Every structure is written in C-alpha cells, then in structure tokens.
C-alpha cells in the first residue's frame, strides 16, 4: 500500500507545474518541508515490517530526491523569469517583432544611382569580361608595350603569352576594356556607361584594395567636344552630390585620352570651406576623363577623322565613401551586419 502511495506521489510531482512564487512555496510545503507528505511517510517507516523497511526506505529516498530536484528546477526557472515563470511572461497581446529586412549594399545603392543619372542623359549600360586579354585592357588603349602598369605589381596575370604581349591573359585593371569591346562591335553614335569589378595587385588597407568597382563612360559621335564632357560631368556632380556642386578639371595624363583631365567636385561636406574629407582644399577628386585618343578610335576600327569622343572613369568605392563618410575600404567586404544595417531604407 505504501508503494502505491509513493507511486502516486511520484506521478504527482512529475506532472506538477509551478508558475509563480506562491505556487513554488505551496510545492515546498507539500513535498519538502518537515510537515510535508514525504516527511510524513518517512515518519511512518517505523511502522513498516522489518523485512520491508529497507525497500520502502529506498523508494522514499528516491521520492525525496525527485521532490528536491523538481523544487530546484522550479525555483531556478522562476528566478530567471524575475519572479514569474517564463511561460507566463509571453504577452500574446503584444505586436509581433518585425522581421529583420535585408538592405542593399552601399556600393549597390551608389552604383544604381550613378546608372540612373547617366541613363537619364541617354547613356545605355554595357558589360565586359573580368578576365581579359592584354589587347582590351592595355594595348588597344594606347598603352606602350613597356608601360609600367603591365608590371606584376599592378596587374594580376593569368597567363603570359610566349609571343605577343597583346595575347597575355589577365584580370582587368579597369573598366576601360569595355570601351574597346564596345567600339569594336558598334559603330557611333555610342553613348554608354560600363559598371564593373576591377582587380589590382595591391596590399589591402583602409585606402587600397585588390578588388574594387568602377563605372566607365564613353560617348563617341560626330562633333563630340570637350565642352560636352564638362557639361555631362557637371550635371552628374549636381545630381549625385547636390545642386550647388561645382566641378573643376585638372590637367592629367592617361594613355587613352588626349587631352586628359582629373575631375574634382567641390566638397559637399564643408561646401568648400575645408574639412578633413577634402583635406582642407575644398575639392575632392571623383573621376579621370578626357577626349578619346585618336589612336584608340583607330585601334577599334572607328574613323578618327569623322568621329570624336570623350571618356571618363570613376571609382564606386570612392564615391560611396565620400557620400556616406566611410573611412575604411575594408568595411565594404567584411559583411559586418552592424555596418550593412546602417543602409536600411537608404
Ligand atoms: N581607367 C582609368 C583608371 O582606372 C580611369 C579613367 C580615366 C577612365 C580616364 C577613362 C578616362 O575612361 O578617360 O584609373
């Protein structure tokens, strides 16, 4: 009979639940305290026949341990929930937490914005390969055979040809390769922008990376002038950085353009007064540009007597850093969600 009683209590304890401190205390009084049922059974032990006493004692010990373990579990649960059982803490009337939404990468946001601005001016989009022949990346663009950019420290070569350097295979170092491919397959008028990924053999730091992105622009037609280049980039700067932006052209050199110019935009952070983004000059560089060198037109089968063109190239990382005040290139590729979440809804 006593065994039945023990069994009953085991089931009772196993099935019991405790949801608050009061219920915990009730549990303690009933199963643990000196006045509880388990102690009472122990007190009764002396009335049990001598030969059964040992077996009953063992059963009672098991029961006592079970009660104590359950009690500890219950009190830990209630403590963790700050006095309430966790089950009770769920407030079903609360609104559900919002699903975390993904966000566009800042480079995607800026690339799309650049494309949008140029598309409105009548530019279409072209793409070209990242693994490229020397011809498209260098030779057709008027780089001399011994130009230092071909050297190992700048270019990732995939295979060096036995014969002509023009057949070397490499990772493109700029998006200007797409200009050449475009001019080879399409006669003017050509008005296109060419976004893409480029590669250079650089040590990774806050200011340099071996993989980055550019947008190339090319406009070839009859009577395209340097003024068209200036107007186009001026319009771009106003759309991208604000309508009060000014641009400035500085003479420069690129093998594929003549004349060549570096494009600066007035610092949109300090409005030209001087700050650490513009290094207290009031201007920040955003692109290289120039009039397409007649040699390049000719290399691509376009009559350089009949046609002229302008070209430009800008770094998407650079523009993104300027626009969002980002000071380390490595953030773009680390995929730290604390960084990426800042662009939600941007
Ligand atoms: N390809 C140049 C670079 O990677 C950028 C550039 C400069 C592109 C002038 C052009 C240009 O089309 O006209 O640094």
Task: Write a concise synopsis of the structure shown.
By secondary structure, the chain is of the alpha+beta class. The protein is 40% helix and 20% strand. It has two domains: 2-89; 109-343, BirA Bifunctional Protein, domain 2 (2-Layer Sandwich).
Task: Describe the fold and architecture.
The protein is of the alpha+beta class and 346 residues long. The chain has two domains: 2-89; 109-343, BirA Bifunctional Protein, domain 2, CATH 3.30.930.10. Helix content is 40%, strand content 20%. The protein has helices at residues 2-15, 21-32, 37-44, 50-80, 86-89, 106-120, 134-137, 176-185, 226-241, 294-299, 316-324, 331-334, 337-340, and strands at 124-125, 131-133, 157-159, 169-171, 190-199, 211-221, 247-254, 257-266, 283-292, 308-315. It has a seven-stranded mixed β-sheet with strand order 1-5-6-10-9-8-7, with helices on both faces. Strands 2-4-3 form a three-stranded antiparallel β-sheet. α2 (21-32) packs antiparallel against α4 (50-80) and α6 (106-120) crosses α11 (316-324). The protein is elongated and about 120 Å long. The mean pLDDT is 92. The chain binds 3,4-dihydroxyphenylalanine (DAH). 3,4-dihydroxyphenylalanine (DAH) binds at residues 174, 176, 216, 254, 257, 288-290, 311-313.
Topology order in helix (H) and strand (E) letters: HHHHHHEEHEEHEEHEEEHEHHH
For the record, give the distance between the C-alpha atoms at the N and C termini, rounded to a whole number. Answer: 75 Å
Q: How many separate helices?
A: 13
In CATH terms, the superfamily of the largest domain is Bira Bifunctional Protein, Domain 2
State the total count of DSSP E strands: 10
How large is the share of residues in beta strands? Answer: 15-25%
Which percent bin holds the helix content? 25-40%
Which spans have pLDDT < 50 for at least 5 consecutive residues? none
Q: What is the CATH architecture annotation of the largest domain?
A: 2-Layer Sandwich
CATH topology of the largest domain: BirA Bifunctional Protein, domain 2
Biggest sheet overview: 7 strands, mixed
How would you classify the helix and strand content by structural class? alpha+beta
């Amino acid at each position: 009979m006593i065994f039945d009683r023990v069994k009953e209590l085991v089931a009772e304890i196993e099935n019991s639940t405790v949801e608050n401190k009061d219920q915990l205390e009730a549990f303690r009084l009933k199963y643990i305290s000196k006045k509880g049922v388990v102690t009472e059974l122990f007190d009764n032990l002396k009335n049990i026949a001598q030969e059964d006493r040992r077996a009953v004692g063992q059963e009672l010990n098991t029961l006592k341990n079970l009660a104590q373990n359950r009690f500890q579990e219950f009190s830990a649960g209630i403590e963790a929930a700050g006095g309430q059982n966790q089950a009770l803490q769920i407030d079903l009337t609360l609104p559900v937490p919002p699903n975390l939404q993904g966000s566009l990468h800042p480079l995607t946001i800026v690339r799309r914005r650049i494309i949008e601005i140029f598309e409105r001016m009548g530019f279409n989009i072209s793409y070209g390969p990242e693994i490229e022949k020397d011809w498209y990346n260098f030779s057709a663009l008027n780089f001399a055979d011994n130009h230092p950019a071909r050297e190992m420290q700048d270019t990732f070569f995939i295979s060096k040809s036995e014969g002509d350097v023009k057949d070397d295979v490499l990772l493109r170092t700029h998006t200007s390769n797409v200009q050449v491919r475009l001019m080879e397959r399409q006669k003017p008028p050509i008005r296109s922008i060419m976004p893409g990924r480029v590669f250079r053999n650089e040590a990774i730091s806050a200011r340099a990376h071996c993989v980055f992105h550019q947008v190339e622009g090319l406009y070839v037609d009859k009577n395209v002038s340097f003024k068209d280049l200036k107007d186009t980039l001026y319009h771009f700067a106003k759309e991208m950085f604000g309508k009060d932006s000014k641009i400035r052209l500085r003479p420069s050199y690129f093998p594929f353009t003549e004349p060549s110019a570096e494009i600066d935009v007035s610092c949109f952070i300090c409005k030209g007064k001087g700050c650490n983004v513009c290094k207290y000059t009031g201007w920040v560089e955003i692109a290289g540009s120039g009039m397409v060198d007649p040699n390049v037109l000719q290399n691509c089968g376009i009559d350089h007597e009949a046609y002229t063109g302008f070209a430009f190239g800008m770094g998407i990382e650079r523009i993104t850093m300027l626009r969002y005040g980002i000071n380390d290139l490595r953030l773009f590729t680390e995929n730290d969600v604390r960084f990426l979440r800042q662009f939600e809804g941007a």
